[in-house]
């Protein structure tokens, strides 16, 4: 185990490009009248370069650029459980030239566990559409004799060394899912926080931790390559990228259902017409066969896009299910 791996807890836009984009997409420029036509539109991603969220952000930016005739760049702002990226959006102009691509769960979990939030997700941001689904899975090394979730619970009960669960993104839905699993299984498993999925997977494959729980976007390729074995996923259905892996519900835990989504957010004061333009453009991108294939290959569940109101209803439902668990845990973030 390495000490650093675990945690204590602008080109000018031509007239021809604009005309082609408007004709092809039917949505026109995202910029309101009077905005500098040379301004760069940025897609803020709350994770570092090289990971699945960054991959998704760059894939979508490239397609949106072509569709809208705009220069889009990914602005990676990792840290503080996505809060740093959210603060960037809060302090950005409300003109549709800064957008946030982030998981929905920190938006309702943050106010419940942090006392020093410098933004209010409910009033500072406007959801534009959902983009992709995120499932969570529990995995063991391919060398482990454990083949099923039931076997993992049995092993954890028999030997505490076989009951460690590496987790990432402390204070996230993933964290509370793992806590709920430990409580429901009565396995006595110990949660081991890591600084990121890569560090956790390295030690999982190496046998330094008995199991690991993370988003399927972290686990899918290792499962396919035979380096990890995903025992179960927590969605209400099997993950699109892991059709051979049962759900927790199928494995004996019918109430253990948790998944999240990536959502495109705008500043709350953004004009409704600009919100509608972004929504329409993103839905067109999400319907593209190559985009669907690439997102599915990485491990995201595929979505067609939704309205702002539908995203709000989804978020409210997720919060109603998990906020009681979070509050009962007594957990408070730094």
TrEMBL record:
- State the PROSITE patterns in the record: TAT
Q: What is this protein called?
A: ABC transporter substrate-binding protein
Query: SUPFAM superfamilies, alphabetically?
Result: Periplasmic binding protein-like II
Q: Which Pfam families match?
A: TctC
Among InterPro entries, the record links this protein to:
BUG, Bug_dom1, TAT_signal
Q: What's this protein's family per the entry?
A: Belongs to the UPF0065 (bug) family.
Membrane-spanning segments: none
């Amino acid at each position: 185990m390495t000490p650093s791996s675990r945690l204590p807890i602008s080109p000018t836009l031509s007239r021809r490009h604009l005309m082609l984009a408007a004709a092809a997409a039917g949505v026109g420029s995202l910029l309101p009248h009077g905005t500098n036509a040379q301004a760069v539109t940025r897609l803020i991603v709350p994770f570092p370069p090289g990971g699945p969220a960054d991959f998704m952000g760059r894939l979508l930016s490239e397609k949106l650029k072509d569709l809208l005739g705009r220069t889009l760049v990914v602005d990676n702002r990792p840290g503080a459980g996505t809060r740093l990226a959210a603060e960037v959006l809060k302090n950005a102009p409300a003109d549709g030239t800064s957008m946030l691509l982030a998981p929905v769960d920190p938006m309702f979990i943050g106010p419940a566990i942090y006392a020093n939030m410098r933004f209010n997700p409910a009033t500072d941001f406007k959801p534009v559409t959902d983009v992709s689904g995120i499932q969570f899975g529990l995995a063991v090394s391919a060398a482990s004799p454990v083949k099923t979730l039931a076997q993992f619970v049995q092993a954890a009960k028999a030997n505490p060394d076989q009951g460690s669960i590496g987790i990432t993104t402390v204070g996230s839905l993933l964290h509370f899912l793992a806590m709920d699993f430990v409580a429901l299984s009565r396995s006595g498993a110990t949660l081991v926080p890591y600084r990121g999925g890569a560090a956790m997977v390295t030690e999982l494959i190496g046998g330094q931790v008995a199991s690991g729980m993370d988003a399927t976007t972290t686990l899918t390729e290792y499962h396919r390559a035979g380096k990890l074995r995903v025992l179960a996923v927590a969605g209400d259905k099997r993950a699109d990228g892991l059709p051979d892996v049962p759900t927790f519900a199928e494995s004996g835990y019918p109430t253990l259902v948790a998944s999240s989504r990536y959502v495109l957010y705008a500043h709350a004061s953004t004009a409704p017409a600009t919100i509608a333009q972004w929504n329409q453009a993103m839905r067109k991108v999400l319907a593209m066969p190559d985009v669907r294939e690439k997102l599915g290959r990485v491990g995201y569940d595929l979505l067609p896009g939704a309205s702002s109101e539908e995203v709000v209803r989804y978020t409210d439902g997720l919060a109603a299910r998990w906020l009681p668990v979070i509050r009962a845990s007594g957990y408070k973030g730094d």
